Amino acid sequence: MAHIALVGPPESRRPRLGRPVSSRSAEAAGGVVLLLPDGEPVSARRPSARTHAAMLPLGRALVRAGRSEGLAAHVVRYRARGWNGTDADLVTDASWAVEEAVRRYGDVPVCLLGHGMGARAALRAAGHPAVAAVLALAPWLPEDDVAAEPEPVRQLVGRRVLLVHGTNDARTDPELSFRFAERAKKANRETCRFEVHSDGHALRQYAAEVRALAGDFVLGALFSRPVTRPLTDAMAAPPPLGLRMPLAAGFGGSRRR
User: Fold this and answer.
1) pLDDT digits 0-9 by tens, 18-30
2) Which helix (H) or strand (E) holds 218?
C-alpha cells in the first residue's frame, strides 16, 4: 500500500492566540487586533518562530497608539504553517482566532491584520460579524485561473479594507493584489490599496511608514478616530487612483533610520 504524505496539520494540534501584546486586562479591551503571520503554500510543519516574531513590532506599535481605547493585540499561532490548497488551513485558524477573541473580550470590534499568506487568510476570514476591518500586507493571492473560482470578496462588504504592497515584492505579485482590490472595491466601497515603491515582501525599507499607516487605519476603523488625508483620499478615490496610492516617505511623521 502506497504511503500517503500528510499535508494538513495533525489533528492533535490546535491554534492559539498566544500571549497578548497588550498588558491591559480583558475587561479593559475596547478592540482587538489579530495578527496573522506569513506561511507557506503546502506544509504540515509547525509555524515559523521567525514569521511570528516579525509581527510583534507592528503589534506593539498598534497597542501603544491605541492605549487610550484599550486596544489589545495577539499574534495568532497556527496549527501548521501551510495554506494547503483547498483545505485553506490558515483561514480555519484565523476564523477560530476571531471566535476566541470574542469569547475572551466580548462584543468588541476586531481587525484582522495579516502578512503574505496571513493576509490572504485575513481577507478570507473577514465575514465574521465581529470583524470591522482587514489590513492585508503584501497579500499572497493566486494567479487568475479560468478553471477555478476567483478569490471571494463578498465577505468584505461592510468592513474597512486596506491592502499594502511593495512594488519590488519578489514573493507575492503586487499586480495580483491590485486586481483583487479592483474586484473588492466594486463589492465594498470602503476598500483602498497603498503601494510602497521600491520595497520588498517584508516591507522593511519603509517599515516606519507602514506602521504609521497601519495605526492610522486600525484606530480609525475600530475607534472612529480621524484619519490622515492620504487614507481618506484613497478610500474616496475611484479606481485605479485609490488602489495605487503611493505611501510617501515620512508618512504620519515617521522617520526612517
Assistant:
1) 789 966 544 579 9
2) helix 207-223
